[in-house]
Sequence to fold (153 residues):
Amino acid sequence: MAIDRMDREIRMAGYRKDILDSLGNISGYTKVLTPVNGANHVGKNDDQITLIVEDKAITFRLQWDATHPTMPVLVREENGVGEVLAEDIENLQFEYILKDGTFTDTPGNTDDVRTVKTTIIARTKLTDPDLKGGDGYRRRELSSVIKVRNLGL
Fold:
């Protein structure tokens, strides 16, 4: 469910970007997409992205849950106000496909981004004593590829 919400909002990045043009910034952000590669909010080289949709600056990132310090969570912030979208998400990665077809983790010019690939790794809440090797958590990886509609052809 969380990745579906991210997909919908990333797809809409730049919608009504004329508001950003007239205001100059929204919550301090001046670009439709602001990627952060290797943000390390949970120490796993995780990424973060902020996007502008109408008059909203929406950020997707990871953080450790304040009440459960061993539980990483996926957070969505809108104009600085956050909500937890999903628990036990220990890695979040974004990769960008540019208008010339090249792939990158760090786009030099975010106006050239046409597609965003999102990958999350979720883990079980509890360790599995029957799982041999590793730290005992079972993990699943989920990826999606999102065409950003409002950033050009």
Observations:
- DSSP finds two helices and nine strands in the chain.
- The CA atoms of residues 57 and 79 lie 5 Å apart.
